Inverse folding.
């Protein structure tokens, strides 16, 4: 039975669905650990700065004077940055999991990204020369498609992480549960597709 998320996939004539899935939320959260850790450090430094400047620590004045208040407020932007790094990374990871779906047919690997604009990218199994499997201890992981040397499909652009920086991740099924069986299924389907072509 096909999940309601996948019913609107435009299948080619005679194409049949072999597998459908979504990224696991646990795998997506693991990639956010460094960002959240930096947020914790930034928040702790900002709070310590505010407490030291206000005199709360080390027996400062009972009343907050204007100069110490101004020094404490310089830490406010760092506090905001730290809290954003801690919590926004988790929210973004959940949104990415909710908006992404994967479909494997007998001819294509399809990646669907929902949101304001729905994107459907299909990769012909005949063009995939191999796959790379990245496994975690809990048997979740990612499968990256290899199109051979000198061939590159339209790249996937990730989040903008700087003034002029664009991160590119290769196409594949990222952060899926039971990666071993899905990888085996992709390889079997790919070999069958190549032999029939």
């Amino acid at each position: 039975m096909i999940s309601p998320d996948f019913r609107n996939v435009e299948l080619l004539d005679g194409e049949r669905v072999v597998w459908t899935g979504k990224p696991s939320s646990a795998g997506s959260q693991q990639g956010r650990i460094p960002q959240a850790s930096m947020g914790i450090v930034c928040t702790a430094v900002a709070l310590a700065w505010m407490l030291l400047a206000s005199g709360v620590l080390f027996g400062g004045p009972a009343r907050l004077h204007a100069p110490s208040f101004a020094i404490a407020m310089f830490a406010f932007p760092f506090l905001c940055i730290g809290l954003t790094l801690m919590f926004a990374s988790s929210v973004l990871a959940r949104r990415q999991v909710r908006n992404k779906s994967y479909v494997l047919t007998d001819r294509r690997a399809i990646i669907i990204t929902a949101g304001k604009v729905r994107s459907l990218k299909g990769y012909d199994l005949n063009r995939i020369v191999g796959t790379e499997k990245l496994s975690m201890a809990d048997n979740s992981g990612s499968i990256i498609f290899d199109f051979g040397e000198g061939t590159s499909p339209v790249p996937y652009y990730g989040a903008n992480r700087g003034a002029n920086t664009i991160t590119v991740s290769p196409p594949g099924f990222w952060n899926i549960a039971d990666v071993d069986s899905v990888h085996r299924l992709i390889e079997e389907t790919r070999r069958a597709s190549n032999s029939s072509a």
In short: Residues 76-99 form the longest helix (24 residues).
